[in-house]
Amino acid sequence: MNRLILVGNGFDLAHGLKTSYKDFIDDFWENELKQLQLGVYMTNQKLNHIELTVNYSSSFILEFSKNYSDLIFETKLNSINIIFENDFLKLITKKSYDNWVDIENEYYTILKNCDQGQIDNLNKNFNEVKMLFTEYLNKIPKEASNINIIENHICSQIKYNDLSAIYNDNLIEEILKKINTNLVEILNDNITANNIENDEERELILRIRDLISKKTEKEVIKDLLLSGQKSLCKILNLNPESILILNFNYTNITDNYVGRTAGYECNSNISINHIHGELNNEKNPIIFGFGDDIDEHYKKFENLNENRYLDFFKSIAYLQTSNYKKLLEFINGEDFQVFIFGHSCGISDRTMLNTIFEHDNCTSVKPFYHKRKDGTDNYTDIVQNISRNFNDKKKFRDRVVNRTDCESLT
């Protein structure tokens, strides 16, 4: 069985990288305010994306503004007028400081209510934000933390409770085929366990031999799997055969996990697919936009016969490289389980996620949640988002791993 690991922004955040949209917007305004403060006594200041008209008597107030929230507070008390040249930047700035923002979702929300006279300006503004975001990602430090913790998850053994019900019997059958000759002979009482030199293996064999008199081989293996018998996992090598890290981020922190082991021998072949492109790589340019062509509005866009509505749809951008085809080759090849590392599973990637989650070879979907400082976690949030990517709710209930069998990423 193979393993497909979906890596989203939470993965970078878990490594200590400030790559969220909010980090980006905070940094943008920190730099804007620094420029504004250099000319603080000017009554009019025009920057790249905003223009401020300031009453001279109140202009010194800008010196004490540390972020956009401070600036907005001052505009309410003083004669300061902020003019945005980029309306989309204005929207995501406000959303970010009100609560939380997903730039790609905001773009699609506006696009659905955009007439043909507005589309060019929206796309221009969105592309400007894309450029600003990539500039920000290029300048942030890339030192990574928590590598040892996360690599243990990447190469962990396949667990019985992680798999959907239909695949549990398949796993047991595979294990029975993997049992070595010595173990088979002992189960048949042809030789004794004393011939086995390894203590762990001998202990396990004796236990199986004792249980086999009371239960079938399949029942014994199931009990041992449910008990988390480490020696069974070690002897039978229950690591996934091949691991594909599907990186939705533009950073390359995932490259740290190629060629590494996780405290024990990991025989899995690990590869990486930078599905959304990479920074500064012309052969794999970044993909920034929306990926839900299952949505009813997408069909309306196609029927308009106006290509400008499709400029930032991911399904079209995927055709610029072979990344998506390589993903399909992986999931079409063998049974696979899905691990989710820091991906919100929101609808901006819905078409791809639906293809993965409902694929006939998909054995399970296991989210690794983020544990907050107050002791709560986001498992339920992730699962709610996952559900939107399933059209078949029976598969959703069977394939998504229960919270009790999940764990935090770090």
Explained architecture:
The chain is α/β, with parallel strands linked by helices. It has 3 domains: 2-17 and 146-156 and 239-284 and 321-405; 21-139, no CATH class; 161-236, no CATH class. The protein has helices spanning 9-14, 21-38, 68-77, 87-98, 103-111, 119-139, 147-154, 165-178, 181-187, 199-212, 217-226, 230-236, 296-303, 314-317, 323-333, 350-357, 379-388, 393-399, and strands spanning 2-7, 44-46, 50-54, 80-84, 242-247, 269-273, 336-341, 362-368. The strands form 2 sheets. A 5-stranded parallel sheet has the order 6-5-1-7-8. A hairpin with a 3-residue loop joins β2 and β3. α2 crosses α6 and α8 (165-178) crosses α11 (217-226). It is elongated. The two termini are 25 Å apart.
Summary keywords:
410 residues; alpha/beta; 3 domains; 8 strands; 45% helix
Order of helices and strands: EHHEEHEHHHHHHHHHEEHHHEHEHH
Q: So what's the overall shape?
A: elongated
Biggest sheet layout: 5 strands, parallel
Strand order of the largest sheet: 6-5-1-7-8
Class computed from helices, strands and strand pairing: alpha/beta
Count the E strands: 8
Point out poorly predicted stretches.
Answer: 41-45, 55-61
CA-CA gap between termini: 25 Å
Overall average pLDDT: 83
Overall number of structural domains: 3
Number of helices: 18
Q: What is the gyration radius calculated from CA atoms?
A: 27 Å
Helix content percent band: 40-55%
